[in-house]
TrEMBL record:
This is Glutathione binding-like protein. It comes from Yoonia algicola. Coiled coil: none annotated. InterPro entries: Glutathione-S-Trfase_C-like, Glutathione-S-Trfase_C_sf, Glutathione_S-Trfase, Glutathione_S-Trfase_N, GST_C, Thioredoxin-like_sf. PROSITE patterns: GST_CTER, GST_NTER. Residues 1-89 form the GST N-terminal domain. Residues 223-233 have a biased composition (Polar residues). Belongs to the GST superfamily.
């Protein structure tokens, strides 16, 4: 059994998609981010960055020993699960395939994801009078990353040729292009790739997980200082373990 610490966001969907695709048994633990669940002492032991998703594998491979394995950061989670199951990633002996996998994992977590996250903030959550510059800036970066995907998908259906964890990482931030104020009209290959992945039953199950708990503008920078405008003090555990 794997515990999945989750909220219904693009980053949360990444891990849920992989777990659904592999068929691994897992228990979703809903994180109430607006209430500060991510700052609980117990969760900080699993995810020191106070971000979800994170997992606890209670039945790791024998090489890991007897203790449960904790993994935080979406890219690390998907790579761990790919190695655990032998699915959706080139095997370790395929050096070129593994090199390309790493390139696209690092591209997503260092470029597409952060730019999409900032665009989402200025589109949906920033104070109204502070949105314009940030929205324009990050829409440009978001579109630039769509261009990277568009070029990569020339003459291939998926980022590595076959469907892989690279696609699972990149898909969620392309899936929500419209709510971000962006358009895929100029990126037909990305639009086709998005549609193919969206039709996968495992992807649909992951996106529907705790769907009613999506933020959808309820928690904003002007009404929730727990979720936004965090400081270093947020990472200092408060109270007794388990509170």
């Amino acid at each position: 059994m794997i515990d999945l610490y989750f909220a219904p966001t693009p980053n949360g969907w990444k891990a849920a998609i992989m777990l659904e695709e592999t068929g691994l048994a897992y228990r979703p633990i809903l994180m109430q981010l607006g209430k500060g669940d991510q700052f609980s002492p117990d969760f900080l032991k699993i995810s020191p960055n106070a971000k979800m998703p994170a997992i606890v594998d209670h039945a790791p491979e024998a090489a890991w020993g007897d203790d449960p394995v904790t993994v935080f950061e979406s890219g690390a989670i998907l790579l761990y699960l790919a190695d655990k199951t032998g699915q959706f990633a080139p095997h370790k002996g395929d050096l070129r395939g593994r090199k390309e996998l790493m390139e696209w994992l690092f591209w997503q977590v260092g470029n597409q994801g952060p730019m999409g996250g900032q665009l989402s903030h200025f589109r949906n959550y920033a104070p109204e009078d502070e949105r314009t510059y940030g929205f324009k800036r990050y829409l440009g970066e978001y579109d630039r990353n769509l261009g990277v995907l568009e070029n990569r998908l020339e003459k291939r259906d998926y980022l590595l040729g076959d469907y892989s964890i690279a696609d699972m990482l990149a898909f969620p931030w392309a899936f929500i292009a419209k709510p971000l104020g962006a358009s895929l009209a100029a990126f037909p290959r990305v639009a086709d790739w998005r549609s193919r992945i969206k039709e996968r039953p495992a992807v649909q199950r992951a996106i529907d997980l705790h769907k009613s708990e999506q933020n959808k503008g309820r928690h904003r920078a002007d009404n929730n200082t727990v979720l936004f405008n965090q400081s270093a003090a947020s990472l200092k555990p408060q109270g007794k373990t388990g509170d």
